[in-house]
Design a protein that fits this description.
Blueprint: H1 29-47, H2 53-71, H3 82-95, H4 99-118, H5 125-135, H6 137-147, H7 152-172, H8 174-177, H9 187-192, H10 213-233, H11 242-264, H12 281-290
Helix pairs in contact: 1-2, 1-3, 1-4, 2-3, 2-4, 4-5, 4-6, 5-7, 6-7, 7-10, 7-11, 10-11, 11-12
InterPro entries: HSQ_synthase_HpnC, Isoprenoid_synthase_dom_sf, Squ/phyt_synthse, Trans_IPPS_bact-type, Trans_IPPS_HH
Organism: Acidovorax cavernicola
Keywords: Transferase
Length: about 300
Amino acid sequence: MSATPHLAAPPAHYENFPVASWLCPPHLRPPIAAIYHFARTADDIADEGDASPDARLAELRAYREELAAAARNEVPPDSRWPHVFGPLAWAIAQHRLPEALLADLLSAFMQDIEKTRDRSTYADRAELLDYCRRSANPVGRLLLHLYGVNDEEALSQSDAICSALQLINFWQDPSVDLPRGRFYFPRTDCARRGLTSEHFKVFEPLSSAPPPQEAINLIAVVAYWARELMTEGAPLVHRLPGRVGWELRLVVQGGLRILDKIEDLGFDTFSQRPTVGKADAPVLLWKAWRMRRQSRPMKAAPPR
């Protein structure tokens, strides 16, 4: 496949951060959009509709097989997702995208389904970060691959940014995740505050009970953890030149903006879900422009 592929429009989803925006170099928009379609479609298989967990897992296994075919620069004639794997096969062939990173994304989606089905939780932060390593970090590494940046420091900073974005999404979304049976709070963090999974049943559908104060305090603690990770990775914006660096600045500032909004809510994201919208654009642009090589001091850590 040598021609630039046609890219079908993605399904309508709320997104915190821009995807293949006008800041991306034009020649990289097709492969970035192909990666996005691949991940977005897999996420829909894992989350949307009313299929059983076993049916979702079977669907993702079939999706994984088509990824393997795309990595061989093939799209089976009976492909169920030609609009995904046609552009992706082209992108893999043209840009040598690592198949393993794309497969890691599917592994994370499958883990989500299995943990929800089995009602299992994450033991500690290390286990949750291993999930982020597969659910979020591959996207950053794929983008760095496209930009020709592959040194260990840059990859580590990218991982920190991507893991922070994934964690921010968790702490933004407990009002969405908990009713669906998805529990991302590490058990060790819960135990330090005397919380168990039983305390979070008040967030199930039809419950009118207010969230326990210790659960709100937990959001403050883990939100600070996400801010630490974002600060650790933020210097990467100065490694990427031109429009690419500006794109990453806006991504970083978008994540930090969500954390600011979580704090403005008194850390009670159980009752309200903060989002970033068009009205936030001037603030994001201003903060992105003001980013310096030395990060500003962190806000004081909440009690642990």
